[in-house]
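Regression test attached.
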Amino acid sequence: MTNRLYEKAYEAANACVQCGYCLPACPTYASMGKESASPRGRIHLVKMAAEGKIDVLRDLKTPIDLCLGCQACEAVCPLNVRYGEILEAAREEIHRRQSERPAPGDRVMRMLLRHVFPHPGRLRRLGDLGRLLQVSGLLRVARSTRFNRMLPERLSWFAKALPDIPPPRERLRFGRVYPAKGERKARVALFAGCVMDAVMFRIHRATVSLLTAVGAEVAVPAGQCCCGALHLHQGMADEARELAKRNIEAFERCEADWIVSNAGGCGAAIKEYDRLFADDPEWFDRAHRLAEKSRDVSEILLELGPLPYVNGPETVVTYQDSCHLLNVQRVGRAPRALLEQAPGVRLKEMEGADRCCGSGGIYNLLHFSESMAILDEKMERVRETGAQVVISGNPGCILQLQIGIERAGASRHMRSVHLAEFLAERCGF
Amino acid sequence: MEMEKRAAWLEELFDIFPKERVLTDLADRHAYSFDASLGEYLPEAVVQPQSKEQIQRLVGLANRHRVPLYPRGSASSLSGGPLPVYGGIVVDMSAYPKRLTIDKENMLAIATPSVITAELHRKAEEAGLFYPPDPSSSSVSTLGGNLMENSSGPKGLKYGTTKDYVIGLEVVTPTGEIIRTGGKTVKNVTGYDLTRLLVGSEGTLGIVTEAILRLIPKPRARRTVMAAFPRLEDSGCALTRILGAQILPSAMEIMDEYCIRAVEEYEPSGLPLDAEAILIIEVDGHPAAVEEEAAQCEAICREHGAALVRAAATAEEQAQIWKARRLISPAIARLGPTKISEDATVPRGQIPEMMKRLRRIREKYRLNLVVFGHAGDGNLHPNILTDRRNAEEMARVEKAIEEIFAAAIELGGTLSGEHGIGLMKKPFMEMELGKEGVDMMRKIKEAWDPNNIMNPGKIFPDRNEAHR
C-alpha cells in the first residue's frame, strides 16, 4: 500500500478526526455545498487515494483543483492538522502523474511557469508589452469591438480590471539601495516578486517611499526571482525548490535585518520555504533562517512608524484579508492599525473579511465560474460597508476585487488598491 | 443483478431531484462515507433534498426498491449515527434550505433541520433569549443532527438536554407520511408524546423537516471559577457540597491529571502538574446572585483542599479559564492520531468511583486514556488516543471500551450520555436495557418502518444479526 502520496501525506491526513470544525471556514464548501469541496472531505479523499481506494487523477484531482488553498481551515482546526502540507503533497502527486499525459491547457501553463516566471527580464518585457497595448489604445479598441466577444470571458474581465501599467523607468532597479530618510533604524531587503515587478510596480514604489519614510534603508537584492508559490500550487515542487534556492542566496548576500514583502502570497511562500527542504538539512537551515526574517510590509511600518500622514479627504475604506497573509503569516492586525491611524480614513469592517475573495493565486483563471460565485458573494459584503476603497495586501486579491467591482458595475465610486499604495496617498507621496 | 437493481432506482432519483442534487461520483461518495467516529462505509449515492415533498418521494422510492436511506447533518457524530452501513443513499440534510424564525412573544424558534446550532444561539441572543443545548460542535452541527442524537454539552445539569427544548416537529415518516407532532405550546398532553420519541431516535424513525424549539430568557451575568485538587476524591466532595449549598451551576467541568499534564505541556498556563483533578464551575443568572454564588463556590473548593482557585469576572478572564478546557483536544491529539471519544455517564455521586475505575482500566490495558467531561451531570468523556493502524493496541482498546461500558452500567449509569448509540455501542444495548427492553424498542421501529429502510443497521442489532 505504500506509494508516494502515502509517504508524503498520510501521517498528516490521518491526524484529522473529521470533527468538521473546518466546514464553516471553507469558502468552497459554502459556495459548492458538498463535502468533497470541504477541507475535511478533501483530507479524507487524499487518505483514500493514499490507500489506493480511489484514483489520483480520475477521482482526487477535481476536488483538489477546486481548493483555493486559502488555508482558513488550518487557522480554525482544533487539532492543528497541517492542511497546507496535505494539499501540497496531493498537488505534487497529481502533477507527477499528469506529466505523463498532460492536457493542452496544462502544457501552456507549465511552459509559462517554467520558462517565463523564473526570469524577471522576460516578465518585465511582457509587462512592457501590456503597457504598449494599454497606452496605444489597442486594448480599448479591442474591448469595445466584437473582438472582445471572441476573448474568453475570464480574460476580458482581467483586461478590464488590470491597473494602468506605468512606464518601465518607474521600475525598481535590482541591486539598488534606497537610503532611509532621517535616522536609519533598520536595513530591509525588498522582495520584488514576479507579477508585482513586471506589472504592478507602482506598489513597489509606494512601498519604498513608506519604508524609507519610517527610517528603513531599502535594498532590492539582485539575483532574486519569483517566489515559486504558483509553481507549488501547480504541484511543481522541483521548480519551486530551484526558485527558492536562488532567492535564499540572493537575500543572504544582502544581509538585511528583515526581508520585506508586500504580497501576502509571496511572503507566505518564503515563510514556508523550509518545508521544501525537509530532506536537505543544509538548505533547510538556510531556508529557515530566511523565513525567520521574513515580514510583511505592514508589520515593519507599524513597528518603525508612525507614518508621516497628511490630512486627506474623509474616506470610508474596508480591508480584505489576504488569506496567505492572515492564515499563514498570521498578519491581520497591522494593516488595520495603519489604516486606523490615518487621519480622515474610516475603516469599516465587512462581514467575513477573513474569508477568501476567490482569487487563490491563479484559481480565478483556472476555475472562473467557481471563483466568480465566491467573488460575487464577497462583493455583497463589501457593498454593505459603503466603502469607497477596498484595501488588501496581495496583488491577486487586488485584481480579483477590482474584477468584482467591475462586475458589480461600481467602478465609478469604488476602487481596489494595495495597502501600500493607499497609505502612500495618505502620506502625500 | 445488484447493478441492475441499482440502475433502476438511480434512474428514478433523477425524476425526483435535479441532477446537481444527486451525487454519484466515486469521490463524492467517499466524501459522504464517514462521520467523526471511526467507521467508513461507501454509499451508492448522495442526495440533497430541497423540500419535504422531495423527501416524501424519496422515501417512496426507498420502500419500493428496498434501498436504505441514511439521513445526515454535518456528520460530526461520534457514534457512527449517520454512517451508511448498508450502502444505499445518504440524505444530506445539511444542504436543506435554512429557515429560522424567532418568535419573541411566544419565546419560540421555528427552524429547518439544516440550521447550524450556533446560528440559533446567535439569533436567540439577539432577541434577548437563550437556547441552552450547546454541544462542543455547535459551530458546525445542524439542529437536525442535534435533535436526532439528543445532544447536550456542558449545560445539562442546570438546563437539561435538547429534548427539553423540542416541543414540536414536522417529520417525513419511514412510510412516507408527513406528520406533525406536538405544537407551539409548552404544555401539550394530546396523545402519545411522539416528539420525545423522535428526539434521540438517531434517524431511525424519520426525517425531520421542521422543529419548534422552546427558548428561555438569557441569563444576565456569568461567573467562572477554576479549582485544582491534589486529590481526586476532594473534587468529588466539593462538587456535592456546592450542589448541597443550593447552588445550581450552569456548568461543572472536570479534567483528570492526564488531561492537565497534556494541556500544560502543550501550552503552559500555570496549571498545577501535581493536581489529580481540575474543576471549572460556571454560575449564571442575576448579577447579584452570581457574585455571591461564585464566592461560595470558591470558598467550598478551598475548604475541600483545592490547592489553587482562580475566579473570573470579566469575559477575558473567563475565556482564559475556559481555554484550559478548550486546549484538551489539540493537547491530547499529540498522544496518538486516532481518538476514540466515549460518553459513559454515571449518577453524579459515582464520579470519583468511575474516575478510579477508568484509571484502573488505563493501567490494565496500557492505553493513553484521559478523562474529562461534564461532572455536574455525571457525563464523563473517557478518550482513548491510539493509532488505528496498530492492530494489537486496537484489540486492547476494544476490551477497554467494553469494560468502560460495564463499569458505567454497574454504577447505575448509562452507555451514552449525549453521543448516541449509533453503531459502536449497539452490541451493548442489552447490557443496559435487557432483552425485553431492546425488544420493545425494536417493535416500535418495526411498526414505524416495516421495510427497515430508515437508517438500518443502527442502535440495536437487527433480528437477524448475531447477538454479542
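Expected vs. actual: identical. The CA atoms of residues 232 and 356 of chain B lie 9 Å apart.
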